[in-house]
Structures are given as C-alpha cells and as structure tokens.
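Supplementary Text 2. Reproducibility record for the structural model of the 429-residue chain.

All settings were left at their defaults, and a single model was retained for analysis rather than an ensemble. We include the record here because the model underlies the residue-level annotations in Supplementary Table 4.
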Amino acid sequence: MSVREIAVDLLIVGAGPAGLAAAIAAREAGIYDLVVLEREDWQGGILQQCIHNGFGLHRFKEELTGPEYAKRDIDSVRVLDIPVKTGTTVLSVSSERRVTAINRENGLHAYQAKAVILAMGCRERPRGALAIPGTRCAGIFSAGTAQRYVNLEGYMPGHRVVILGSGDIGLIMARRMTLQGAKVLACVELMPYSSGLTRNIVQCLEDYDIPLYLSHTVVDIHGRERLTGVTVARVDDNLQPVEGSEIEFECDTLLLSVGLIPENELSLGAGVTISPATNGPYVDNRFETNVPGVFACGNVLHVHDLVDYVSAESALAGQAAAAYIRGEVPTGREIAVQDGEGVRGTVPQRVKLSSGEQTTGIDLMFRPTRVYSNAWLVVRAGGKLMLAQRKMIMTPGEMAVVTLTPAMLNKFPDAQAITLEIKQTRPSD
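Retained model, structure tokens:
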C-alpha cells in the first residue's frame, strides 16, 4: 500500500497549549514550513474543558479561564497562518523523523520532517493501576473524564461523591461538583500531604467545607450495577491500611485523581529514552531528546502545575527546533544533571553549553520528594558547591525551579555533573 509522503521542515504533534506555543515560537523564529497535527476536532487541548479561572497570571498578567487562555494562542496561530490539522491521529514517529498519520480527508499519509516536536500531553492514571478491591460497577470516573462530562457534554456523573487523590483536577472537580448541586463527602489522599496546589486546597476544599483525609485511601468499593459506597481507611508509614480505622461512605460516584502519566507511546516508537522519574523523555536544556531533531515539551515531558510554565517551556522548544533546522547545533561541553537527596525528576537531565560564551540562564525544574520547611536547596557542580538557596516551603504538589546563570556555570569549567539536593542545614562548603 503506497502512502503519500509530504516533506516539511517542522512537524508538531499536539495542538494543546504546548504544541501551539511551540508552533508560534518556531514561526516567529523564521520557520514557515511547519504543520501541527491534533487528534481532537478542536485546538486548545485539555484547556477547553477547564472552565474555571486562574490561568494566565504569569504569562498574560491577568486571570483567564482555560478556554480564554487557549483562544489567545489559537488566535495567534491563525494570524501567523500556521496550519493545524485537527481530527488527525498520529500513528507513529520514527527515529528518522518520519511521521505517519491518518484522518478523514487524506486517509493514511506520512510526513518527512527535518525536526519534530512531541507535545502530546498526558493522561490520567486509571483504576486498574490502583488495584482497589471491589466490583466493577458504574459510577467510577477519572476526575478529568468527569470534568469533560460536566463542562463540555452537560452530563452529571452523580450526586454523592468521594474523591480519591488530591491532585489539582480532583480538587477543582470537588468544587465543580458542589457548584452543580452534588454533595462531595470527602477528598481522600494516600500521602501525608496534598499533591495539589495550596491555592486549590483553599479555594476548592476549605471554602466549601469539604474534608481532606490525609494518609487515607479507599480499600473497598461497594455495589453491583451502580456504586453504592466506598470504605476508606487510614494508612501507616508503609502506606498499608490500618485495621480498625475504616470509614464507610454512602456514595454513587467515586472520582479518581491519582496522578498523570505523560503520553509517550509515540516517543518510545521513535527511540526516545524515557526517564523513570518523570515518565517523560530525557532532554537537554534545548528540550532535544536523545534522538537528533526530536524535541519534547509540556506535559509529555513532565507534568506541570501551571499552563503558563508549559507555554514558556514550549516556546523555548520551538526556538530550539528552529535553530536545529537552520543547522545551529551546539558544539560545547555537556553536563549531566542528577537528582540528589530530597529531589525527584529534574528537567532537563543534560545541559549543553555553547562553545562560545553562555549568554542565557538555564532553568532546572524538579519536585521535592516530601514537604520541606525552612530548608536549603543546594546545587553542586563536580561535587563543589555552586549555589545554596534558602526555601521557606517546598512541597511535592508544586514544581520548584532554580536558575543557573552563565557566571555560575563558567566557574566550573571541568564539571561533568550537576547535582540538586535539599538539606535542612546550610552546607559548609
């Protein structure tokens, strides 16, 4: 079967906030032969179902809803005349940057690109990954699915709700379900801390008197045709249920907000190396993966807290892809970036310095492994102290960022690795 092949300079997979920001930045950097492929029938990605406000404060200096934020980029894409093909499913990406796709208009077709940006976003962890005992009854939804039903399709999933997990989508849906007339009985979190932003805990739970049970989990699901209740129990330091601590909730709906997983099936097919800490690709500070000419950004790379940060990161990826297409490949030294004590999932995992003077700072993003208060963020280069910053609070629910300036990097010309760690006391060296 012959497949029509189209040559293109840049191909971007995904027209969510990451893909759109990358496309805009690449076009503004002088790349005119590019195309964005999106499997949904609309642009904007998950933002279109996020009708609450709180978006855009960093990027636009005003508070927007998700659709309003998406519209800013969709309008920019239209003004810049960037082709976006919706309703197009990408089937594969090869290590030679050949992208095979299918849609109603063109059937099966392929693109041969000089550079590819992966911006597929992430998906929710399903019930099957949790191994919760109980029947497979109706009434169990991921929080994002419930959000889509309520905000886009006009369906109410249920009326008496328990939420497992305190991720941001779950917290936001606690408020949304309450506003729609449901009774949210509890939000249950396995860890001793919430995995969501502090502002969402306050605005979505505390403002509506919804109890948050930390160090608790769902240990049983009741009901045959439809959910009739769940059993919740406290867990010990080993995250095992404590006998005798069970609480019964009569409910018809259980929402799961138990983590997000980057959509990296296409990345794996292209030969991209995946980090076990982030479940996203290993990248350098230009967001290039181990496969030359293949870049990754947004939630397919690592799960973000704020879409503003997704857009900023993806714009850098778009600029880097444009430079790659022009043949501007860095030739300087490479430094590995490593997670130390208290640090998990640092991105990027490699820093490539230009052969000339490094002119811009490099942001390293990570999550603490637990809640820290009044601690020190320490950066070492080749085992020597590069930076120590005092932090009043750091929590796994909020991404932390440290910027390495050119002056810092130039002080350690022989360093082969940079390590981030969190210490309760200031380092002496």
